[in-house]
Design a protein that fits this description.
194 residues; mainly alpha; Cytochrome Bc1 Complex, Chain D, domain 2; 0% strand; binds heme C
Length: 194
């Protein structure tokens, strides 16, 4: 797998300064610029390990921002900015990113054995919550077009029980029996979905 933590760390350090300034932002536009500095223009990430947030369901976005702000979900990179967000900011950010264009399907990723992936996801009914096209709904995340290395991280965090959230029970249950290799296959499959 291709996670390069040092690259991500130095990238994060360079945007932290920006995050610090914009944390006192007054306008939604200024906040969005700060978010986009990490999450990519209009929420479409161009950085390894950084999730795209464009076209995530509004409710999912709001929940995650509240969890991150309140520390239930630990995201160190976002600590400073998250604690300054008002409920009103969170509602506005949820609405804004939910209506952006979804991230494009990943091209040129590893070849996916769809039959094998289906053997993993069908018994676990991923689509019953995340929707048939994996666009997400309500408190449930969009997975289609998400960065594969981030999907692997999210799944391993649920498996290890370190990520808290609305769906943590269900997500622990489906991930506990997945091997690292299974997660990578599932992630490659979902990332390549339009
Ligand atoms: C300094 C970089 C940085 C900034 C600035 C930042 N984020 Fe994040 N954000 C991250 C990282 C890194 C993660 C992934 C955490 C993980 O691996 O679990 C994340 C996760 C998220 C998630 C959860 C995504 C998911 O799919 O689970 C949401 C929602 C989010 N950020 C929204 C925002 C918003 C809105 C802003 C602006 C107010 C913002 N972020 C600013 C780095 C940043
Ligand atoms: C019973 C409903 C349910 C099922 C079944 C389910 N999920 Fe989830 N999933 C959720 C919910 C709800 C969340 C949001 C969790 C949170 O609040 O942190 C989530 C979050 C995720 C995330 C994190 C996304 C992000 O952007 O942070 C991934 C990845 C994921 N699910 C993959 C899967 C896969 C793969 C399967 C099948 C193996 C699956 N899920 C089955 C409900 C479900």
């Amino acid at each position: 797998m291709l996670i390069r933590p040092r690259i991500l760390a130095s990238f994060l350090a360079s945007v932290l300064l920006l995050a610090g300034t914009a944390a006192q932002a007054e306008s939604l536009q200024e906040l969005i610029e700060t978010c986009d500095a990490c999450h990519g223009k209009k929420g479409v990430s161009e950085v390894e390990g950084m999730p795209s947030i464009a076209a995530q369901p509004d409710i999912f976005l709001q929940y995650q921002l509240v969890f991150i702000r309140d520390g239930a979900r630990k995201v160190e990179a976002m600590e400073d900015i998250a604690k300054k967000l008002s409920d009103e900011d969170i509602r506005a950010l949820g609405a804004y990113y939910a209506r952006q264009r979804p991230p494009p399907a990943l091209r040129g990723g590893p070849k996916v054995d769809v039959a094998k992936v289906k053997q993993l996801i069908e018994p676990r009914k991923c689509n019953s919550c995340h929707k048939e096209d994996y666009s997400g709904q309500g408190e449930t995340a969009r997975l289609a077009g998400q960065r594969p290395e981030y999907l692997v991280k999210a799944l391993s965090d649920f498996r290890a029980g370190v990520r808290r959230g609305r769906g943590m029970g269900a997500m622990m249950e489906v991930s506990i029996t997945l091997h690292d290799q299974d997660m990578e296959m599932i992630a490659a499959y979902l990332a390549a979905k339009p």
